[in-house]
Design a protein that fits this description.
The chain is an alpha/beta fold and about 500 residues long. It is about 30% helix and about 25% strand. The longest helix is centred in the middle third of the chain and has 18 residues, at about 310-330. It binds zinc ion.
Length: about 500
């Protein structure tokens, strides 16, 4: 594959810049021109849309590591200075499945919507398996709601905030550990069954560590749940209203299932690119800056005029901004704390690289002062106010607002930006107890953001054109340089972590 020469250009220029000029860079504002160069390279068709596990990943990861190195950072993935943290992933591709459900009299129940896959891959055949409805799967006391051994457990997955203290993944893991042979999830009605079928057939990526040790895993829709409960003489609506009750007990169904399913399992490693600038004080902890490098790859069928989802705004713009930030933070005197840059993989597949990092951190989680995420920054014009995704859910709003105002930046202090809190990598670190925020201009005025989300977002049109504003991204670059310096120095931020 031919790599366009401009992809190699920017990093090479900075590597060749003499030291006195680099110190000048350390104080220079982020320019739209440098962001343009890096976004153009990362969203070039040569990167194939940066899908994890493809040749596009290799090009993107190498480009980012080279840029971080040229900026003055060292590899931070491991003790020997490597740049790449392996993230074991799995895709399960649908081959076929057939599930037959029989009622108490052995008659076939028609018209059910069930889709299955085999987490271990290959062919699985199950005959005459009992079904059990387990509600949320795990009760208020933390134990599994019924005896699921040798059965297929049917679990409601709704996990809006406050719905259940454990995530659906954690509850499925508990059911598998309790001996369920299979798990069927019932998603909320807002997820159409047809879309879930497409996702199953498309081979969704998952963290290998999260693949459940069950024979079959599937999804049924709400009308199918109603039918199955009805055949057992139970009313779904009244049962669902009791899920949170302390005395909720699982319901063994009279129906039984035969399942035949074939799945194609592919195991592969993708990579988080991790860089580090060591601080002066070994024990003072670290400031993290994260942004996802991945996107959706070739997202249109063969033969389509433009197949590549280039992800210029989502999130080549965030990586370009991280690189610009690195060029300033990599020069001059070191700060007190380490600065760690993490270009994460598989954010688009469900924050997978960020969840992997939270489980395998290169800095102990309680030594991370703050994690700053940068995603989808090329939305706002220059001068846009700063909003915080995560405002009110971290200890540092006042300090962050102060840093922004000291730069002359207006602060948007309402909580509208929190609508995106679960849709960005910071969520995975926040769930692990790390103070995590995403600050920037994209999430203050919702109008241009919505225009983007309803337009080129996750489509082949997310490309770098003259219409993509880079002024707000440059502002956000300057903001992150100031935030990193503030939180990485003991004079401006003495406490290492609110948890200590
Ligand atoms: Zn995205």
């Amino acid at each position: 594959m031919k790599i366009p020469s401009r992809i190699l250009f920017t990093a090479a220029v900075f590597a060749a810049t003499p030291l006195h000029a680099q110190n000048a860079i350390a104080d220079a504002p982020v320019t739209e021109a440098e962001l343009h160069a890096d976004i153009a390279a990362l969203s070039d068709d040569a990167m194939l849309g940066r899908l994890p596990g493809t040749a596009g990943e290799t090009l993107a990861a190498q480009y980012i590591a080279r840029a971080f190195a040229a900026a003055g950072f060292v590899g931070g993935a491991n003790a020997s200075g490597g740049w790449y943290q392996p993230v074991p992933l799995v895709t399960l591709n649908y081959v076929d499945d057939l599930t037959l459900v029989r009622d108490r009299a052995g008659r076939l129940v028609e018209g059910l919507h069930i889709i299955n896959r085999a987490p271990a891959g290959g062919r699985v055949e199950l005959d005459d398996v009992p079904l059990i409805f387990v509600g949320h799967g795990v009760g208020a006391d933390g134990s599994v709601t019924g005896d699921v051994r040798g059965k297929i457990a049917i679990m409601v997955t709704d996990d809006r905030p406050g719905e259940h203290p454990l995530s659906a993944d954690q509850r499925r893991a508990a059911l598998a550990a309790a001996g369920a042979v299979g798990i069927w999830s019932v998603p909320p009605a807002r997820f159409p069954f047809a879309a879930i079928q497409r996702q199953y057939r498309g081979g969704r990526m998952q963290l290998a560590a999260r693949i459940l040790p069950v024979r079959v895993e599937g999804v049924i829709d709400r009308p199918t749940l109603d039918r199955l409960l009805g055949l057992s003489g139970r009313n779904a609506t009244s049962l669902l209203s009791q899920l949170a009750a302390e005395d909720f007990a699982a319901v063994d169904l009279v129906t039984r299932a035969d399942v035949q399913v074939t799945s194609l399992r592919r195991d592969f490693n993708s990579y988080n690119v991790i860089a580090r600038r060591p601080g002066r004080h070994r024990d003072a902890g670290a400031v993290l800056i994260t942004g996802h490098w991945d996107h959706l790859g070739e997202c249109r069928p063969a033969g389509a005029e433009d197949r590549i989802c280039n992800g210029a705004v989502d999130n080549a713009s965030g990586i370009a901004t991280m690189i610009a930030v690195a060029r300033r933070l990599g020069q001059g005197a070191p700060m007190d704390r380490d600065v760690v840059l993490i270009a994460t993989t598989a954010e688009e597949q469900g924050l997978l690289g960020a969840y992997h990092y939270a489980a395998h951190p290169t800095v102990p989680l309680n030594k991370i002062t703050i994690a700053l995420n940068i995603d989808t920054v090329a939305i706002a014009q220059r001068g846009a106010p700063m909003a915080i995704v995560g405002r009110g859910a971290n200890p540092y709003d006042v300090e962050i607002d102060g840093v922004a105002r000291a730069l002359g930046r207006a602060v948007d202090s309402d909580l509208d930006a929190n609508a995106f809190i679960r849709r960005q990598d910071g969520w995975a670190l926040g769930a692990a107890g790390v103070p995590s925020i995403m600050a920037g201009g994209s999430f203050s005025d919702m109008a241009p953001l919505e225009t983007y989300l309803e337009g080129p977002y996750h489509a082949p049109d997310d490309e770098l054109t003259d219409a993509v504003p880079l002024g707000g991204a440059a502002d956000d670059g300057d903001l992150h340089i100031a935030l990193a310096r503030h939180f990485a120095n003991l004079a401006t931020h003495p406490a290492s972590n609110s948890a200590e």
